[in-house]
User: What shape does this take?
Amino acid sequence: MTVSLFYNARCPDCVRQAKLTARMDWLGRVELRTDDSPLGEVPVGEIVVVERESARAFTGVYAIRKVCLQVPIYFLYGLALYLPPIRALFGKSKQGCNGDACEI
Assistant: This one.
């Protein structure tokens, strides 16, 4: 299964993380996109992940989990995000580049 990762190209942290994900995705399962997602424009500091087969869209920690399960080096982190205490811990937003919360 492949996914499309939508991010805002005006967010330096998003761009940095997207480039890192592209380097680690040696199986080519994550397509990076900066255009509007099916949910509309992606706000700075947020991501939207869409499964290509089902066209389901994910945001927040669920989007991060979807990406992690596609990239081999992030796979164990993705599995850990199924555990509610881990998901709650990493689901908390950090300070973003524009002063708002950041999902990256």
